């Protein structure tokens, strides 16, 4: 049991119909970080919940704080996989009221307001656009979240809400990092480098320090403080595409045109099926200089903010028959 959590754990749900929160992860280390923050595993108790007929999904079922949750493990990345997993999840858990797409993403290093985003920071969506990054065209604006989600996001954007969210996330991140098998430690600020958009990676398949990337770096003032810097939360528009973005020039053009601050591949598949919030950690700058070294740390920061977000989630009560 996680000792950071107050002793108000939910009761074991009687059936699959009693679950209202789903978490979707596309990569194993994303789901590992989420599971590390479970306060109880209903999977370990009998009888099992099983699944609806024909549902091929794999689930981890448990409690995070006062919420019963179901974690869906996606078999692959991308919108199509996410849509299929979400649809099958809805068949097995028909009363889901909130889906959290949790994991890693590429980010814009400096948003339109001039704020720096560094690796390990976390993006929480207040909207999603579906984008064809190959043709740099907007396919569809998937709209805003519902009023219940928007109200909470507005509260969390306030000074006290943001401060509380970041303080809780810091504590939960420490819990994930106590699991040695997850290797979720900060990779070091020396490995967080942003090259000017026109400078491309020298050799595919090798890290920058292996192939001699030596372009002009974008200066980062966030590195002048604590080392390592604490992950900061950013609220904004997320672009969801079927392909991984590896072009800083396309990144900057898309960010300028649409105001997006992050790029990922799953949320568009979930958005039309469940009320949805994207919570993802920055693991690269959506350019050609990608490094997997940041993925586990970014997955951990995303999971930490996910749990902090759920601490604030208080859905309205459903009316019971006869009330």
Automatic annotation (TrEMBL):
Pfam families: PNP_UDP_1. It comes from the Eukaryota. Coiled coil: none annotated. Residues 20-307 form the Nucleoside phosphorylase domain. SUPFAM superfamilies: Purine and uridine phosphorylases. This is Kinesin light chain.
């Amino acid at each position: 049991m996680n000792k950071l959590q107050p002793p108000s754990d939910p009761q074991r749900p009687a059936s699959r119909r009693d679950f209202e929160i789903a978490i979707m992860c596309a990569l194993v280390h994303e789901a590992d970080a989420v599971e590390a923050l479970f306060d109880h595993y209903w999977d370990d108790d009998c009888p099992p919940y099983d699944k609806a007929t024909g549902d091929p999904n794999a689930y981890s079922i448990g409690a995070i704080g006062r919420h019963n949750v179901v974690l869906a493990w996606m078999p692959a990345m991308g919108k199509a996989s996410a849509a299929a997993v979400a649809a099958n999840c809805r068949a097995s858990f028909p009363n889901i009221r909130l889906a959290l797409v949790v994991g890693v993403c590429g980010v814009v290093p400096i948003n339109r307001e001039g704020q720096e985003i560094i690796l390990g920071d976390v993006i929480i969506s207040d909207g999603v656009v579906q984008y064809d990054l190959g043709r740099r065209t907007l396919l569809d604006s998937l709209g805003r979240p519902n009023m219940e989600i928007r109200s909470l996001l507005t509260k969390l954007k306030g000074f006290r809400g943001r401060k509380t969210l970041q303080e809780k996330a810091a504590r939960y991140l420490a819990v994930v990092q106590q699991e040695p098998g997850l290797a979720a430690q900060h990779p070091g600020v020396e490995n967080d480098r942003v090259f000017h958009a026109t400078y491309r990676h020298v050799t595919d398949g090798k890290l920058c320090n292996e192939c001699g990337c030596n372009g002009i770096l974008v200066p980062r003032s966030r590195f002048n403080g604590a080392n390592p810097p604490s992950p900061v939360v950013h609220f904004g528009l997320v672009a969801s595409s079927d392909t991984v973005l590896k072009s800083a020039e396309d990144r900057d053009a898309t960010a300028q045109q649409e105001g997006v601050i992050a790029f990922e591949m799953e949320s568009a598949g979930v958005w039309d099926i469940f009320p949805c919030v994207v919570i993802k950690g920055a693991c690269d700058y959506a350019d050609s200089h990608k490094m997997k070294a940041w993925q586990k740390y970014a997955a951990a920061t995303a999971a930490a903010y996910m749990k902090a977000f759920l601490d604030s989630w208080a859905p309205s009560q459903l009316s019971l028959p006869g009330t």
